[in-house]
Amino acid sequence: MITRAALTGWGVCVPEARLTNADFERLVETSDEWIVERTGIRERRVAGEGETTATLGIAAGAAALKQAGIRPHDVDLLVLATTTPEQPIPQTSAFVQEGLGLRCGAFDISVGCAGFVYGLITGSMFLVGGGLERVLVVGAETLSRILDYTDRQTCVLFGDAAGAVVLSAVRGEDPPGLLAWDLGCDGSASDLIQMRGGGSRLPTSAATVAAGEHCVKMDGAEVFRRAVRSAVASGSATLERAGVKPEQVDLFVPHQANVRIIRAAAQRLGLDPERVAVNVDRYGNTSAASVPLALAEAADAGRLKGGDLVLLTAIGAGMAWASALLRWGE
Ligand SMILES: CC(C)(COP(=O)(O)OP(=O)(O)OC[C@H]1O[C@@H](n2cnc3c(N)ncnc32)[C@H](O)[C@@H]1OP(=O)(O)O)[C@@H](O)C(=O)NCCC(=O)NCCS
User: Fold this and answer.
1) Is the CB of residue 149 below 6 angstroms from any atom belonging to ligand 1?
2) In CATH, 177-327 is 3.30.1490.110
C-alpha cells in the first residue's frame, strides 16, 4: 500500500476586465500582428478596483473546495504561490486563509512563474510523508499592478488570474497522483527577470519610485531561450524518473508565457500539439496562476479521464523551474 497526492478538486478566478492587443496599440508602439506573431497572446484579464491577489486566490480556492466536496475545516494546509503578494507583510496566505475560513497552517511560496508547480510538489510532500490528508494549493497573481505600461517589451505579456487545486492523500497499490517531479534553479541568471525596488537591497524611496524600480523588467530573448531549454530538460528528467515515454503523456500543461516557447518545448519533448494545453491567447502570462488555470480549463473541457498521464512544467524568475507528472484520478 502506498500513499500519493492526488488532485481531487480545482477552481479558477479571472477578473472580468480584459485588455486586448488593440488596447495596447493605443498605449505603446506595438501592433496586434506583432503581439500575436511573437507571443500568441490576444487578450489578458486585468484586476479591477477591489480585486487583489488575495480576492482572486480566495475565489479560486473556494471553487476548488466546492468541487472537491470538502469544507474549510477539512483542509490541513494552505500553500499559496505568488509573485505579486497582497502586501509585503503579512504573507498573502494569511489573507486567503482568513477569507476561506481555513483553520490550518498557511504559507507563501515565492518562486516566480514556477511557484504553483513548486507549491504542488511541496504540498504533496506533506501528504505523502507528513500524515496530512488535504492540502489546498493556490497560485494567484495581479501582475497588472507591477507592470510599466510604457514598456512594450513587458506590458503586453502579462495578465491577472488565480487557480487552485485540492490535493488529497490517496492510498492503494498504485493510486493516482504525483508520480515524479523535478525542481531546479539557476540563481546566476537572477538578473533576467527582476523587480528591484521595495526590498532589502533597494528599499522603497522617492528615488526608486521615480526610477520605475517597482515594475518588472526582463531580458525577453534570453528568458525565451532558457525557458525552452529548462522545460525540455526538466520535463524529460521527470518522465525518466517515472519510467514514462513521451508518447504515453496524455496532456502536457506547460507554463503559459508564449506560444512559441510552448510549441518549441512540446516538439523537443516529443509531444504532439493535440496533447498540449494552450490558453495563453486569452490570458497572457499569469505567472503562478498559469498552470492551474490551463489545467482547470483542460479538465473542465473533458480533456482528462481517469488514468491519464499529465505533465506540468513551469519556469520563471530566478531562474527557477519545476515539473510534475500526475496520474489523473477517476
Ligand atoms: C518578449 C518576447 C515576446 C520578444 O520576442 P522576440 O521575438 O524575442 O523579440 P526581440 O526581443 O528580439 O525583439 C524584436 C524587436 O521587437 C521589438 N519589440 C519588443 N516588444 C515589442 C512589442 N510589444 N511590440 C512591437 N515591437 C516590440 C523590440 O524592441 C525589437 O526591436 P529592435 O529589433 O528594433 O530592437 C520574447 O522574447 C519572449 O516571449 N520572451 C520570454 C518572455 C517570458 O515569457 N517571460 C516570462 C517567463 S516566465
Assistant:
1) no
2) no
